[in-house]
Amino acid sequence: MIRFTIDGQQVEVPEGTTVLRAADQAGIYIPRLCDHPSLTPYGGCRLCIVEVEGIPTLQTSCTLQARDGMVVYTNTPKVREAREFVLTMLFSERNHFCMYCQESGGDCELQSAAYGEDMTHWPIQPNWHPYPVDASHPDFVLDHNRCVLCRRCVRACAELVGNFTLNVRDRGSKTMIIADLDVPLGESSCINCGTCVQICPTGAFIDRHSAYLGLDAEVEQTPSVCVGCSVGCGIEIATRDNHLVRVDGDWEAPVNDGLLCEVGRYQPVRDERKRIVTPLIRKDGSLQEATWDEALNLVAEKLKSLAGRGSDGIAALASTRLPAEALYFFQQLFAEGLGSEMATSTDGHAARSVIVNGQAGSLEALKTADCVIVLGEDLVKDHQVAGFFVKRALPQGTRLIVIDSGENALHELANYSLRPRPETIRDLVAGILAASKGSDPSQPDVATTSQRTGVDADTIQAVAQVIALAQNPVFVCGAGAAEAAEELAKLATSFEIPVIGLGGGANSFAAAKYGLDKAFTVNGQQAAYLALGDDNPAQDLAQQLANVPFVAVQASYVSPVTDIADVVLPVEIWAELEGHYVNLEGRVQEARRALTPPAGVRSNTEVLQALAQRLGIALDGNWLAELGLETVVA
Amino acid sequence: MKAIRAMVLVSGDPASIAQGAHEVYQRLQKEIKAFGLQDEISVSMITDVGRHDALPMVIVYPEAVIYGPVKPEDVHFLVEEHLYKGRIATRLVAPKKELSGRIAWLAARQGTLPAEQRIVLERVGLIDPDEIEEYIVHGGYEALGKALTQMTPNEVIEEITQAGLRGRGGAGFPTGLKWRFVAREKRTPKYVICNADESEPGTFKDRLILEGDPHNVIEAMVITGYAVGANEGYVYVRGEYKLAQARLRKAIAQAREMGFLGKDIFGSGFDFDITVHAGAGAYVCGEETALIESLEGKRGEPRIRPPYPTTHGLWGMPTVVNNVETLANVPAIIRHGAEWYRGFGTENSPGTKLYTILGNVNETGLIEVPMGITLREVITIYGQGMKNGAAFKMAQTGGSSGSIVPASLQDTPMDFDSYARAGVSLGSGALLICDENTCVVDLARVLMNFFRYESCGKCTPCRVGTERAHQILTRITEGRGTLADLERLEKLSQGMRQLSNCGLGQAAAVPLQSMLQHFRAEVEAHIKLHVCPAGSCPMSSRRVTTAA
Predict the structure, then answer these.
(1) Nearest CA to B57 among B47, B213, B90?
(2) Contacts of A335 (CB under 8 A, 6+ apart)
(3) In chain B, residues 426-455 whose CB comes closer than 8 Å to chain A
(4) Local structure of residue B44 (DSSP, 8 states)
(5) pTM, whole model, 2 decimals?
(6) CB pair distance less than 8 Å for A41 and B304
(7) In Å, how far is B314's CA from the nearest CA of chain A?
(8) In A, which residues are within 8 Å of B508 by CB distance?
(9) Most-buried pick from A397, A557, B382, B518 (CB within 10 A)?
(10) Which CATH superfamily is domain B132-341 in?
(11) Does B467 sit within 8 Å of A85, measured CB to CB?
(12) What count of CB pairs under 8 Å joins A to B?
């Protein structure tokens, strides 16, 4: 530990801590623009300067490592004068007339820093040159007039997201933030993750969905968890007057370190689906409003009559966007209580691949991996935040091996890109295992594997070697690798490689643990119960249900499935519900209520409970214990 | 027994033969016999001598003197002078390969001070830079041999430290100390980088060293590598220096062939090799950490320091970055010893310094002079006085990043410490001599324009400060300045100097400070009287005259 003083206050921090971070921990605020806890120190803006006893020049605290006995001052006249100089420079650089900016009034770190120095004006003429505004992007606008060139966005795009879209053009005062080789943002390689918007200290990046809707001080922030996929990113839901304003990544969240993808950040605010707010019952061919009692009684009556019947009984499907509590009730109600042979979740067999080798690998492993082997999952499209961790490690020399028969954008970035023939992943993994072990008579040799899978023998050999020699290799497996689970487990065990299994939805892990992991099929069942929640049903689901005499749907939004339903039970959406989600690592996280649901809408658990009560089935609340987790990571 | 004491080669490529090489060859044999030298001198005809300007050529070893073009009727004179009497037949010596700049040599004069010392330029302009043999004949690679076979790395560093060699890139950091910092690092691989991104306006000393004597720099880099424990070297050459790059590449190939680069040099077990990397036109890449970023393929922006390149340089490994001129001193120091080197220059700044003189003087060009010479001496002796007899007003040192030195400091010794005491800096070695017709505000504006264009844009004080300062200076030269602008300039220069991340922004403040410190009256004349005393600013062509 390092002991030193800041402004007379004794501070103790671990070695390697910068003075700025130490000051933060001690509750002493040093203004800064380019620095951000998630980014490597840059030392560009020069606002965070401090005076250090024994060093004649002012030091940037963001790059200065704390040393024992150091005596730091953050507020001397010299420091304040220098800070004012830097602010003067920044204000005079571009158009920083605060009254015309949606960030001003607390959200803008530049303005707040100036207020902190009691600045009311800047003593140098402003630069009257107008800079372009890039409004080509669907989710945000880049106003170069407000840019202070701190490069937080550029560094975040590279260091955190690994997308390298944002960059810098020219130099000196002509410096401009650009996308790719200076194309409009909307036409660039941007993946709409919005990290740049979230990290921008000024009003240069303007969020189209939430601009002018509320400053940080005016909105309510509810920490919660994203239910977009099984990564389970920590989010901050910003709401105002029971309206969703914005979704931000939670910088403190252990899973995602503040990162979000398009699905987590923008899909919720772009959502324009029609909400269902009262129970509906089909009468005379059309859905008509009903009371909860009427609707629940009707469903209960129908289900009761089919209880215990096998293949011509009840087909039940639950979305993995439902909280674990609801999934557990669902399993008890349908699989156990009503004896349905087809009670499963929307992820079907994808859910099964989650737990290879009996345990879930931690995403943390990706941050130290020197070799990542991705099987059957396009991390550019799905589970994007996990993909960010992989992509951003590549410039540091992390080797990427991609095994996927289908389209996979990661193929382009891979050191070894293996495209086995469809349904031969299993053979390929077995072949790699054999090649990595030398000669094992029980395994097929490389030549046979090559012949069967269509992957070049040399490549198989090389990949086997890279895996065997890697210090910290990690497997990342998606649904496409489910068939090879057994071989993977062997390979993982023999080299002690952690396996990160990517389930489909937010609660795939829980669904699999509850046994809701069959592929959903309808084959002669007389009734179907669909607990969709706010999920978008699969495209062919309505079609699959066409011949089922009775369809009950528990859903938040109108969809093709509700259109054919006999009874619709309206439930809460993600931001309204309370419950728990178990991410792909087996980490149990709490989703908190940020919005009050419309009157007449019930929670998923309430609906299932009400049905169980009417059917005389007892439900227990042991959802956590039933997950069978040895240790619960919250 | 026949003891051959000299070898005469005649170029025998088709072009030479067409111009009478055969006759020359035959006449040589005849004349040598005539002088009775046939048992001590061999004559042979070779195919291609590597240059095609003055054909046919006759090359005499061991002196490696190249004669050309040699006509049959010249042969008698050549043999008599060189081979019989032992003097170089100056009249027939082939023209030297050209350099892209001029070296201002002083005519030899006895007892005139300061003596022109040639350490760095010892061979520049005198040998063929494309011929490693010529370099070797003039003592080349002797230092390397000495270092590798007779000295430990530590002794090499000690010698350089004792010599008191200081970095010639502008900062004057003790070279021995820098090497020691790298040598004591345990992590490998380590790197040696030669900073040849000479981008200071008006500075071309490094270019002429590389063009005229590339092997000197190569030899120095190998010695440096040996001293600090590095096996890999990079020369980061300014992109525009095409000729320097070509000569350097050729020299490296020759050195490799001769075993001065590559594996097991001089049988010492020490390996070293050099890669040439061309810059892409950014001034800031002359800053060592920006140079390293650029070498790594990234945008040329200076890094945060500390850590310094000595511990975290290229690819994060310990790295020595030395300027071309600094390195060019190394072989001579190793060859002659620290004591010898200390005989030149001043106590704290031993050795010589290269300057490029330009501006309003009669003679311009590159000079090598001992440290501690004064500006007055440079102007009168080397510059042959001011042009048109005008009065000396000020000198801009070091391209743009030095200071504006007023005439009042023209008798201050030009060495690191004396200049630092006077509050000015030597910079990289360009001396822009300005006469009374140069306006200081205009000069500052031009310099600031350079900085604002070359600022990398990473840190606020430099990126915005240079822009704002240029704006204000322009305003003053146009007669729109106010007295408050002087305060602003003061603040700007202070802020840039204190808060900039690298030397570029810090240096950008220096001309402003020099201007305000030494020429305030002239600046105020622009503002209060709307007059440019030097008569060069656009707002006024009126000169201030004493007549009422």
Answers:
(1) B47
(2) A316, A343, A515, A516
(3) 452-455
(4) E
(5) 0.87
(6) yes
(7) 15
(8) none
(9) B382
(10) NADH-ubiquinone oxidoreductase 51kDa subunit (3.40.50.11540)
(11) no
(12) 89
Q: What is the DSSP letter of B377?
A: H
Q: Which of B363, B337, B367, B364 is nearest to B352 (CA)?
A: B367
B282 touching chain A per CB within 8 A: yes
Residues A30, A169, single domain; the answer is no
Q: What is the pLDDT of residues A320-361, one digit of tens each?
A: 999 999 999 999 999 999 999 899 999 876 545 545 445 567
Give the model's pLDDT for residue B113: 44
Please check whether residue B286 touches A, CB under 8 A.
Answer: no
Q: A38-91: per-residue pLDDT in tens? A: 999 999 999 999 999 999 999 999 999 999 999 999 999 999 999 999 999 999
Nearest residue on chain A to B492, alpha-carbon basis: A85
Q: Give the pLDDT confidence score for residue B547 in this predicted structure.
A: 44
Residue B229 reports pLDDT greater than 90: yes
> A405 with A480: CB under 8 angstroms?
yes
Which residues of A sit within 8 Å Cβ distance of B?
41-47, 49, 57-58, 60, 63, 82, 85-86, 89-90, 92-93, 123-125, 127, 148-149, 168, 170-175
- Tokens at A546, concatenated: 């066409």
Q: Does B304 sit within 8 Å of A124, measured CB to CB?
A: no
Across the interface, which of A89, A123, A168 has its CB nearest the CB of B460? Answer: A89
Name the range with the highest mean pLDDT among A535-549, B126-140, B262-276.
B262-276
Domain ranges for chain B? 6-99, 132-341, 352-435, 440-528
Residues A392 and A495 in one domain: yes
Residue among B467, B495, B501 whose CB faces A173 most closely: B467
CA pair distance B431, B390, nearest whole angstrom: 17
Decide if B457 and A90 are in contact by the 8 Å CB cutoff.
Answer: no
3-state secondary structure of A216: helix
What digits encode the pLDDT tens for the residues A172-220?
999 999 999 999 999 999 999 999 999 999 999 999 999 999 899 999 9
**Cβ of A49 and B457 within 8 Å?**
no
Query: pLDDT at position A359, please?
Result: 59
Say if the Cβ atoms of A58 and B498 lie within 8 Å.
yes
> What is B352-435's CATH number, 3.20.20.140, 1.10.1040.10, 2.120.10.30, 3.10.20.600?
3.10.20.600
Q: For the domain B6-99, what is the CATH superfamily, name and number? A: Glutaredoxin (3.40.30.10)
B144 and B265 in contact (C-beta within 8 Å)?
yes
Cβ within 8 Å, pair B464-A123: no
Residue A423 has pLDDT above 70, yes or no: yes
First to last CA, chain A: 28
Mean confidence (pLDDT) of chain A: 91
Chain B residues inside the 8 Å CB shell of A125: 471
DSSP-based three-state secondary structure for A272: coil
Q: For B486, which residue in chain A has the nearest alpha carbon?
A: A124
| Interval B179-216: pLDDT, tens | 999 999 999 999 999 999 998 888 889 999 999 999 99
Burial class (CB in 10 A: 0-12, 13-18, 19+), A539: exposed
* Closest in A41, A47, A173 to B463, CB measured: A173
The pair phi, psi for residue A286, each rounded to 5°, is -130, 155
CA of B116 vs chain A CAs: smallest distance (Å)? 39
| Residue A76 vs residue B536, higher pLDDT | A76
Instruction: Identify the CA nearest to B202 among candidates B371, B363, B433.
Output: B433
User: Can you name the CATH fold of B440-528?
Assistant: de novo design (two linked rop proteins) (1.20.1440)
Of chain B residues 395-414, which have a CB less than 8 A from chain A? none
The rounded distance, in Å, linking the Cα atoms of A291 and A275 is 17
Does residue B338 register a pLDDT over 70? Answer: yes
